[in-house]
């Protein structure tokens, strides 16, 4: 006679228990508290010199990862526990990546804001200024002129090259362009400066030539591969169905690119262009070589030396005078101005992308 078997209840991870809503926050706070008490004990015992804030934060975060996994596995099951652990690790990695950025921006604002708020910083140059006083107007204008000219040179070339690679390029020529773009992406910035300097030295037979347009050429060499790569990826994201629909209506290929492909990808292209500008606007080595530096205003890109903000920051910090604090303050203020310009450019890029991006309606 067979013995009847008793059916065991099935365990379904999808219907398991669930931790309270705010339990991750309380676990994180408790982990930091335990880690803080641990470092307080070490400090009192003389094992460490002072309370270690960074050690407390990192140790508490590690304890939180262990605690959230253990408690979630006990209550919610293995699947949810793994999900919570990975979420904690990804969030921690994101916060760790933000720490240097926040520290950099905070330090620059704290040190540069007092000098940047002086009445003369944005309204005067350093001509005939020794020690305290003066401003960075000549460097700001130089940066805008040099970078703007580099953008006017590199964007048409890079965008047309990307259109050729995506829409027309086939065979050895396209492969060669792709190869050289990849090579140019990794060249050091000082090589671009040396190239521009050597080019204009040979053209004008002047071994000591320094002028703003040479800096624009050096920056354009650095910008072109970034514009090509970013624009190429954005053009590839345009669905082929849109192109085929235009061809079916009898629209020629060049007009399809102009009226369909470019408007569809304009948001990503503008973002890539802004990234390329942000990539080169802070370059110092090529501008120091071919554009030089000066303390006077210069609006002519084709004559005499031209100061830019990166070179301004470098020279102020490297060539300190008797009143060294004034030079350091101007260097921090120049760095803050450069960050603000990049932020404004990124804001304009988002605005332009929002205005010109295609509008879809149902």
- Identify the CATH class of the largest domain: Mainly Alpha
Structural class: mainly alpha
User: What's the total count of β strands?
Assistant: 0
Q: What shape does the CA trace take?
A: flat
The total count of helices amounts to 12
Radius of gyration: 29 Å
Question: Distance between termini?
Answer: 70 Å
How do the helices and strands follow one another from N- to C-terminus? HHHHHHHHHHHH
- Number of individual domains: 2
The CATH superfamily label of the largest domain reads MetI-like
Sequence stretches where pLDDT stays below 50 over 5 or more residues: none
Strand content: under 5%
Overall mean pLDDT: 86
**CATH fold descriptor of the largest domain:** MetI-like fold
The CATH architecture name of the largest domain reads Orthogonal Bundle
Largest sheet: none
Helix content: over 70%
InterPro entries: MetI-like, MetI-like_sf, Phosphate_PstA, Phosphate_transprt_permease
GO molecular function: phosphate transmembrane transporter activity
Protein name: Phosphate transport system permease protein PstA
Keywords: Cell membrane, Membrane, Phosphate transport, Transmembrane, Transmembrane helix, Transport
């Amino acid at each position: 006679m067979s013995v009847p078997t008793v059916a065991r209840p099935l365990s379904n991870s999808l219907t398991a228990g669930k931790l309270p809503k705010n339990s991750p926050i309380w676990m994180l706070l408790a982990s930091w508290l335990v880690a803080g008490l641990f470092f307080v004990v070490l400090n009192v015992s003389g094992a460490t010199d002072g309370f270690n804030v960074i050690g407390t934060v990192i140790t508490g975060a590690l304890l939180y990862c262990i605690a959230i996994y253990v408690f979630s596995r006990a209550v919610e099951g293995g699947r949810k526990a793994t999900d919570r652990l990975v979420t904690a690790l990804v969030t921690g990695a994101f916060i760790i990546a933000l720490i240097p950025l926040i520290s950099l921006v905070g330090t620059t604002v704290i040190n540069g804001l007092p000098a940047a708020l002086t009445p003369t910083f944005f309204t005067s140059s350093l001509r005939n200024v020794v020690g305290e006083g003066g401003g960075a107007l000549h460097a700001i204008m130089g940066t805008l002129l040099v970078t703007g000219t580099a953008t006017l040179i590199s964007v048409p070339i890079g965008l047309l090259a990307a259109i050729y690679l995506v829409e027309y390029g086939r065979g050895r020529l396209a492969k060669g362009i792709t190869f050289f773009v990849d090579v140019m992406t990794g060249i050091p910035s000082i090589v671009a400066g040396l190239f521009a300097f050597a080019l204009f030295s040979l053209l004008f037979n002047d071994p000591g030539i320094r002028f703003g347009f040479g800096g624009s050429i050096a920056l354009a060499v650095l910008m072109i591969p970034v514009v090509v790569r970013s624009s190429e990826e954005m053009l590839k994201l345009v669905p082929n169905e849109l192109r085929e629909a235009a061809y079916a209506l009898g629209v020629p290929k060049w007009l399809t690119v102009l009226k369909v492909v470019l408007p569809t990808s304009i948001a990503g292209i503008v973002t890539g262009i802004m990234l390329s500008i942000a990539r080169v606007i802070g370059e110092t080595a090529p501008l120091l070589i071919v554009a030089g530096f000066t303390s006077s205003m210069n609006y002519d890109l084709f004559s005499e030396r031209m100061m830019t903000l990166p070179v301004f920051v470098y020279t102020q910090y490297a060539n300190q005078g008797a009143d060294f604090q004034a030079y350091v303050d101007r260097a921090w203020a120049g760095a803050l101005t450069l960050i603000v310009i990049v932020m404004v450019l990124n804001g304009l890029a988002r605005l332009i992308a929002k205005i010109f991006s295609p509008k879809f309606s149902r």
